[in-house]
């Protein structure tokens, strides 16, 4: 189903980004499918959602080889807002890379359980773009404006232990214990007070993410303009050829 797999384990809905040959790079059909599966989680029988990635990493970002870049940006923001608005807990299980869109996709979840070897990166400027997927709201809400600007402008890789120290993620665990710890967190939520979680999540979102819809719209406008620049075309060429881009600022 467009690179998205879903599994039900009693009250737990597990959604897997399942395109391991591309490090789970997200294209528009995958994002549409992901949005639909998040919508399925509104079923009363689901008490917690787990979002993970297949293979070596969580998500390498948007698929730059896709033709519908503008459409992907729109749906990406819709997915993130759907996760944030879902009236039940969502847990991201992150191993390996959470890069580009993969970073805000993880941060949209209520809890992030990351393996110690995992890392987070807003790599958008490497191809002449700005962060999207609500990153411009989610990241500063978690770690502050200065660190968010550092991540977004310099495209630095932030190791999971540092992400935890900064307050970006809720859990960092040794790789050998990753699956066990993730399962324990999920099970605790699945057996917890679902209605209390619903109101708690709504209050936390009101306090920290009230700007998300407006920021998302600004990201769509900015990204749409940026995909028409010479710098973006150069960034994609450099990415495909695995060389450093030569940006001209236009």
Automatic annotation (TrEMBL):
Q: Which CDD domains match?
A: crotonase-like (cd06558)
Coiled coil feature spans: none
**Which GO molecular function annotation, any one, does this entry have?**
catalytic activity
What domain of life does the native source organism fall in?
Bacteria
Q: Which family does it belong to?
A: Belongs to the enoyl-CoA hydratase/isomerase family.
Name of the protein this chain belongs to: Enoyl-CoA hydratase
Organism of derivation: Mycobacterium heckeshornense
């Amino acid at each position: 189903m467009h690179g998205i797999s879903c599994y039900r384990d009693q009250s737990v809905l597990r959604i897997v980004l399942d395109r391991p040959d591309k490090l789970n790079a997200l294209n528009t059909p995958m994002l549409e499918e992901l949005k639909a599966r998040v919508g399925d989680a509104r079923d009363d029988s689901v008490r917690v959602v787990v979002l993970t990635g297949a293979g070596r990493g969580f998500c390498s970002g948007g698929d730059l080889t896709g033709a519908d870049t503008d459409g992907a940006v729109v749906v990406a923001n819709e997915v993130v807002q759907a996760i944030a608005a879902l009236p039940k807990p969502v847990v991201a299980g992150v191993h390996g890379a959470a890069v580009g869109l993969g970073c805000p996709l993880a941060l949209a979840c209520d809890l992030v359980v990351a393996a110690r070897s995992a890392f987070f990166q807003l790599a958008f400027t490497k191809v002449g773009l700005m962060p999207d997927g609500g990153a411009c709201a989610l990241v500063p809400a978690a770690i502050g404006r200065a660190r968010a600007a550092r991540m977004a402008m310099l495209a630095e890789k932030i190791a999971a232990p540092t992400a935890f120290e900064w307050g970006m993620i809720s859990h960092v665990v040794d790789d050998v214990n990753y699956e066990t710890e993730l399962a324990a967190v999920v099970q605790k939520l699945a057996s917890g007070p679902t209605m209390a979680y619903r109101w708690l999540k709504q209050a936390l979102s009101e306090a920290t993410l009230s700007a998300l819809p407006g920021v998302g719209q600004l990201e769509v406008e900015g990204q749409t303009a940026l995909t028409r620049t010479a710098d973006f075309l150069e960034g994609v060429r450099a990415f495909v050829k695995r060389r450093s881009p030569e940006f001209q600022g236009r």
